[in-house]
Structure formats: structure tokens, C-alpha cells
Amino acid sequence: PHLPSDEQPKEDAREKQPAEGGGDLPGAPVPSPGAGAVGEPAEPPQARTPSREAEADFYCVKWITWKGERTPVIMQSENGPCPLLAIMNILFLQWKASGVKLPPQKEVVTAEELMAHLGDCILSTQPREPSEGLQLNFQQNINDTMTVLPKLSTGLDVNVRFTGVSDFEYTPECIVFDLLNVPLYHGWLVDPQVVQAVGKLSYNQLVEKIITCKQASDSSLVSEGNGPPRRPAACSPGGGWMPCPTPLSPPPGLVAEQFLESTASQLTYHGLCELTAAVREGELSVFFRNNHFSTMIKHKGHLYLLVTDQGFLQEERVVWESLHNVDGDSCFCDTDFHLSHALGKEGATAAPPDHHLQQRQVDQDYMIALSLQQQQGQDPSALSDLELARQLQQEEYQQQQQQ
């Protein structure tokens, strides 16, 4: 999702900006109205123009054939609230279990309608057992959820941990996924080689750690109290081991910063492998990456993301996008996961040209030009190609005017 030009992200008190420690940190989530720890708009609601506000309240519906039934998919415009759409598309795709449907032939849906469907689905999770403890716990969860639901259309506070594909710092927003039994995954895992420097820290904690290490004036704080590095006996006159004045390996703070720089896409190959192994076959889930929430499924051992870009609204053969590369090199598939002929992500599916149709059109244009010359009593060989083209163009223009 793109940040509208008239909105600016506000500073998050929980996440200190890397500029305080000197320099920007690559890999930091970009604030957006769709999601993220710093994804809430800073301007008051009255600062928005009515046209933009009305545009954000309506979302187009794309109807696909999913498991033999016409199923709606909510498409996302430039300012679409991706957390809400990702969850609702899961409920629509598994309508047999959730019971969430839209009227047939519905082409546009409002945010209020989506919220109403989501609220009904959450209320249906009420425990059937008459236990007083369960009922009180459910009532408390509902109260917490009601305060979270409005954020689905503005941004969720999600903070990943680099230790597992389903590890997130617990925030009240996570209760929505828990109540609906919708798995939430990410693929931003730390490689085993640098796991000691990152550890079990979340993204916010890792940023604070890097800033602290950059501001540290003594080497002991930079190396985080791990003791001075040591060098072999060849460095000391008397043999044995002795403290080394310069570290043999980068300090953990520098390693952590290098990790964020090298994983700016917020997806690592180690994370992609762990993600493929963790997601169950046929499981519908939400995938979080770069402050964007996507509907994800695993089909025959491969991961796919639901295509919700409004540019593909009329493309029936573009439904899923493969997730097999950290660099974004993906393929488009239809509803049955067959490879589509879409050549780009701009929404244009270019079919291979039919050379027979092109040649037939050229021959037809030539015959029309010859007929036009004979009607005017001209010798075809006396006219140049340019004059023939002009006559043909004039004839087509006259036919369009008559129509």
C-alpha cells in the first residue's frame, strides 16, 4: 500500500527513529495506512477531503470460481486497509466454515459492510459451554476486540520477532486473529549465523539495541559485556592467550545493523524455508511483510498470495501470485493455480499476438484501398504507399462518422 500524499506518518513513541543514533536503518517498515507499528495517519480526520474519504469507503469486488462456487474477493485500491481485506478475503474463501457471503452480482462493498460481517463472525465464536469463566473470558475478549476493529481500516500495531515465522510481540490487535482462528505469519527470520546478535529481540528492541551500540563510547558496551576478544599465542611474547586490543569479529550491534541492511525486503531465504515448512497444506492465513497484510495459501507444497490489486480487477486468470523468491520475482496463476500469461504487475495480461489475424487485417485493408481507387478511376500503380494509406484512413474516418 502507498502512503497518500496528504498524509504523513506520526512518530511512534514505542519505536525510536534510527536518526537519533546516527543514520537511517534499511529494512525498517515503511509507515502506511494499511498496517504496521507506525502506520496510523497523523492528520485529524477533518483534514481529509470528502472525495478521498468517500473513495476509501468503497472497495471493488472481483468474483472468482473457488472450489466450484462463485466467490467474492475484495480488491485493494491505493488506500485500501489491507488488514481488514486480508482477513475478510479469508472468510469469503472459507465461507463454508465461516458462513460469510455477499449477495450475487455485488460489485462494490463498503467498509461498514465488511465490518458488520466481521463482527457477526466474531460473535459466532461464543463458547457453547455454560461455564461462567469461559463466558466472562469471552466477554472480555469481545470488549478488547471492539476497540481494535476500527484500527483494521487504519493500521495495526504489529511487531515481528526474528525467531520464528509465527512469533510476534503480543499486542491487543493480535486478539482479532486469535478469535477468528486465523494464523498470522511472517518470513523475516534471522540466519543461524547471526542469531546470537539478534537473539529473541523484536524489531523495535533491535533498533534500540543498534542505537545504544552506536552511542556507546567504550568498547565493553559495544561488545555488550561479552569480555574482550582474545587472540592466539602468536600475538603474545610469552605464549598462551591474552586480551586483544581490537576485536576479531564485528560487535553484535554492527552485526544487527548489517542484518537489517541485508534483509530490507523483510523476507529471508531461511524464513521462506521455515514458512513453507510451518504452513499446513491448504491452510489459509495472513502473511505480514513490509507493513502489508496478504491472504496466503499453501497448495501442493508451494506458497501463494492472493492478488488483490485493483489493477487486476478484470483479469480473470490472475488470482494468485507465487511466493518463492525473496526478491519479488514471482508468477501469476489462475484460481486453479495454473500459470497465467500475465507478463507484469501493472495489470495488463498481454496475450501472444496472432500473426494470422494481423496478416488478414493487412490484406483486408489493401483490398479496401484498391476498391476505393477503382471507384475513383485511378490507376493503383500510380499512387504511392503514403497516398494509399491516406485514402484508407479517410475511408475509415468516414465510416466511423456514419456509425
From TrEMBL:
This enzyme's EC code(s): 3.4.19.12
Keyword terms, alphabetized: Hydrolase, Protease, Thiol protease, Ubl conjugation pathway
Which reaction is recorded as catalysed by this protein? Thiol-dependent hydrolysis of ester, thioester, amide, peptide and isopeptide bonds formed by the C-terminal Gly of ubiquitin (a 76-residue protein attached to proteins as an intracellular targeting signal)
Which residue intervals are annotated with compositional bias (Basic and acidic residues) in the record? 1-18
Keyword DNA-binding appears in the UniProt entry? no
Where does the record place the MINDY deubiquitinase domain? 58-337
Q: Pfam families annotated for this entry?
A: MINDY_DUB (PF04424)
Ranges for region Disordered: 1-53
Which Gene Ontology molecular function entries are recorded, alphabetically? Answer: cysteine-type carboxypeptidase activity; cysteine-type deubiquitinase activity; histone deubiquitinase activity; K48-linked deubiquitinase activity; K48-linked polyubiquitin modification-dependent protein binding
According to the UniProt record, one GO cellular component term is: cell periphery
Q: What GO biological process terms does the UniProt entry carry, in alphabetical order?
A: protein K48-linked deubiquitination; proteolysis
Q: What class of enzyme is it?
A: hydrolase
What InterPro entries would the database entry show? MINDY (IPR007518), MINDY_domain (IPR033979)
In the record, the note on similarity to other proteins reads:
Belongs to the MINDY deubiquitinase family. FAM63 subfamily.
Q: What does this protein do?
A: Hydrolase that can specifically remove 'Lys-48'-linked conjugated ubiquitin from proteins. Has exodeubiquitinase activity and has a preference for long polyubiquitin chains. May play a regulatory role at the level of protein turnover.
This chain belongs to the protein called Ubiquitin carboxyl-terminal hydrolase
Organism field: Dromas ardeola
